[in-house]
Every structure is written in structure tokens, then in C-alpha cells.
Amino acid sequence: MTAITAELTPGSTTGFMTGFTTATSTATPVSRAASTVGFGTLAPSRPTRLRLTRRGRIVLSVLAALPVIVAILLSVLNGGVAAADAGGSTVTITVSAGQTLWSLAEVIAPGANPADVVADIVAVNALDGGAVQAGQSLVLPAAYVD
Prior knowledge:
35% of the residues lie in helices and 26% in strands. By secondary structure, it is α+β, with helices and mostly antiparallel strands. Among the domains are: 52-86, no CATH class; 89-144, LysM domain (Membrane-bound Lytic Murein Transglycosylase D, Chain A), CATH 3.10.350. Helix 3 crosses helix 4.
């Protein structure tokens, strides 16, 4: 412990100031682990907590959900291939000169509505429009395969 001159008290004759006395106080060493809180109060140091801001929570949520979103997108994008292969055995035909999807639909399924058959052919083959060209290969829907 170290003695420190801390204050003057009334009633003594010290130096040129008459009526004051010196008083001593003792100082205790403080460990480096303790931190000061306010004026003179000491508290033990605690590890700091991780605090996430609103932006941090949003970023963390997006990063956690990203694999799920990617998996859903991949399954949706690959769903067209699975629909074409769902029937098991597939039959491929080659379009002849002068044939249209409507004439093919009447030949493939004579008892069905040609508009429904054309819609199924367009869906299975992922065609942009209703036009086909001579020599083009088309996969027939599984419902119309014998």
C-alpha cells in the first residue's frame, strides 16, 4: 500500500496556509482486469455480447435462406425435363414437309380434341409457337403413345 497526500483539513498550521492539516489516505492496487464504471467504482470486466443490427439480421437471414432458394429454383427449372420423361417410354416422330401440329394431332389421337393434343405436344417439346419445320423431331406425349 502506498501513502498519498490527498487533502487538507482545517485546524493546522502547515506551510503558509494556517489552519489546515494534511491527511493521508492509502491507495490499493487495482488489477488490470477490472474496469472503471463512473467515478471511482470498479466492476469486473465481462466479455462483450454480440449485438446484431437490423441490417445484420437481414443479411444473416438471407444467407441462411439462400441454399433453400437455390434448391427450389433448380427443381423448378429442371421440372420440364422430368415432365417429358415421366411417361417412361417415349416415341419420337419426324415432321414431314407440309405437316402441321394440327394434322399431326389428328393422326396421333383421332378420337381426342386436336386442340388439346396440340397443346400437349407444345408443352412436352417446349415449343415457342405452333409452327414446326420439315425434318424437326418431336416427342409425343405419353398419353397418346400406344
